[in-house]
Amino acid sequence: MGAGRLSAKGLKRHMSKQQKLPLDMIYHWETARAEKVYMTQPMGKGKVVDFTWRRAVGEARRMATYLKSLDLPEKSRIGIVSKNCAHWIMSDWAIWMAGHISVPLYPTLNADTVSYIIEHAEIPVLFVGKLDDWESMKPGVPDSVECISYPLSPSTNFKTWDDIVAENPPMTENTERDPEELATIVYTSGSTGRPKGVMLSFANLSYAATGAADRLEVTHEDRYLSYLPLAHVFERYVGELTSMNKGFHLFFADSLDSFVEDLQRCEPTLFIAVPRIWTKFQHGVFEKMPREKLDKLLKIPLLNRLIKKKILTNLGLQHVRYAGSGSAPLSHDLLEWYRSLGLELLEGYGMSENIAYSHTTQPGRARTGYVGEALPGVECRIGEHGEVQVKSPATMMGYYKDPERTKETFTEDGFLKTGDVGEIDELGRLKLTGRLKEIFKTSKGKYVAPAPIENKLMSDEHIEAVCVSGENQVSPFSLVMLSEAAQEKRDNPAFREELEKDFVELLKDVNQTLDPHEHLRFLVVVREPWTIENNFLTPTMKLKRNVVEDAYRQKVDDWYAQEKTVIWE
Q: Which structural domain, as residue segments, surrounds residue 141?
């Protein structure tokens, strides 16, 4: 199933006694922590439901009985489309217990992509959960697919989770799955082209969960808020698999509006976010207190500790001992700002193809611009054209129904070709300098890597997202999206004038750090925000560079002709 797949002997060699398979861990906690709360689920209007291990595994066993009663072909692919919730996790378990393969779908997909995945994976049953826009997704689900709805689902006439659980006895046997068996197919978020189905085995899942939990010394006493999409491997391995491995308490968020309240309910000890969320938190603090004033107060010894504690408490992060960030680089300024509050943000790196299990920064060993050291069992090297190549027991089996692309993605000796360009320092820390496919050539024949330049521009607190472009142009330029607070004031002439001065200085400062051929000619402030809904961002809030560039392509020549440093769209 792919050049990167380890042999049966290889897998068994890597599976140590400590590396229990996901289902083994579920059965363990079902008895060892039967009455301990595993998941806390907000139900809206302030109502919260707790699921003990006994209840969670019990409901999954009853759903597994029902799935088995459907007499589906062996190892059928069963879909889950929902925002994060307790029932998402229990569905995954039930699918595995019934001998099938789970296929998560992002809750923000359009009908066309839903239809493509259902057809490609041949999905006969779909769990439909907590969704914001089911009406626009529904046309992508064929009538032949049996749908099961969760308690928090939109109104449907589907069979409900609660009715099925009430009507079916629990499966009594402890289903065992082979480590080498396909456990789940994770479709990539499709920043370019059709999503690819990444095949992950139970051994892949187990290795990732164990390695990360041990490196960070995670225990059953930890608390974690699961809100990044479970359909993405990053949240899947940290939120679901690591909590299953160590038995810690999992909380869910109700909505964006209640996010801070949900955080405060959880009081997490582990918290993971993407750079845009860390930036939003910071902007939220600055809205209440301007940065200059805050910086002055933090320099007063008597107030320093008090203010830091207050800020972190207001964010619900006062108990966090491990704060992580992934999906894109953090700016130096942002890292330093959180560090000044006593919160060290540790960056990580990984891909769908290795269940996000690759690199992470270790506490006290962070270096700005670096994503940390290889996790246990991960080999990393720099290949041709500076490409980062990795290999570990967490590496996928291959792409579903796509042996050709699988072959292209692996080297002859089984390393995964990441498509990222990077370098490794003397301590083994990895720095990512761009994507092979993102590097573009100016009309002068010079190559430009956009990612490092974008990272420098992100140091400005008025900027939330950046896209550096300029293929076949004399020199590159930058598109910037304003932060929420700045966007609200963009039509105020005095604010605009002040911001324009700031951006002129920013461009000057950034250009001084770049090679001459990388100098940005101008900066364009876009009018419309880039969101998941308008297809400018992936579900994990990464920029869809090709979509962004296509949207503004017609205007580029005019912008160059204006010969301005800052252009307002």
A: 8-34+48-209
Per the prediction, the chain carries an average pLDDT of 90
- Asked if residue 182 is part of any domain, the answer here is yes
Give residue 196's pLDDT band: very low, low, confident or very high (50, 70, 90): very high
**Is 391 among the domain residues?**
no
What does residue 52 show for φ and ψ, rounded to 5 degrees? -75, 165
Over range 459-483, report the average pLDDT: 91
Centre a 10 Å sphere on the Cβ of residue 334 and count the other Cβ atoms it contains. 22
- Residue 78 corresponds to which tokens in the numbers above? 């069963």
Distance between CA 117 and CA 107 in Å, rounded? 13
Kindly state the average pLDDT of the residues 362-374: 86
Decide if 180 contacts 201 (C-beta within 8 A).
yes
The answer to whether residue 231 sits within a structural domain is: no
- Bridge-based pairing of strands 146-149 and 223-226 is unpaired
**What CATH number is attached to the domain comprising 556?**
3.30.300.30
Can you give 314-336 as a three-state secondary structure string? HHCCCCCCEEEECCCCCCHHHHH
CB 355 within 8 A of CB 208: yes
Share of the chain above pLDDT 90, in %: 63
Whether 20 is covered by a domain: the verdict is yes
pLDDT at 6: 46
Distance of CA 100 to the CA centre of its chain: 25
Q: In this predicted model, what pLDDT tens digit does every residue of 340-350 receive, in sequence order?
A: 898 988 888 99
The two structure tokens encoding residue 524: 């364009």
Rg for the chain, CA atoms, rounded: 24
Q: What is the edge-to-edge ordering of all strands in the sheet holding 477-482?
A: 463-469, 477-482, 523-525, 566-568
Cut 0.85: pTM above it: no
CA angle 368, 369, 373 (to 5 degrees): 90
The DSSP element (H or E) to which 347 belongs, if any, is strand 345-349
Q: Across-strand partners of 199? A: 185, 398
- Tell me the CATH number at 152: 3.40.50.980
Choose the final residue of a domain: 165, 190, 209: 209
The answer to whether the CB of 418 falls within 8 A of the CB of 354 is no
Nearest to 285 by CA among 297, 274, 301, 270: 297
**Secondary structure of residue 369 in the 3-state scheme:** coil
How many domains does one find in the chain?
2
Query: Is the pLDDT confidence value at 297 over 90?
Result: no
Whether the CB-CB separation of 277 and 66 falls below 8 Å is answered with no
Instruction: Give the residue from 146, 179, 209 where a domain finishes.
Output: 209
Determine the Cα–Cα distance for residues 408 and 395; give it in Å rounded to an integer: 15
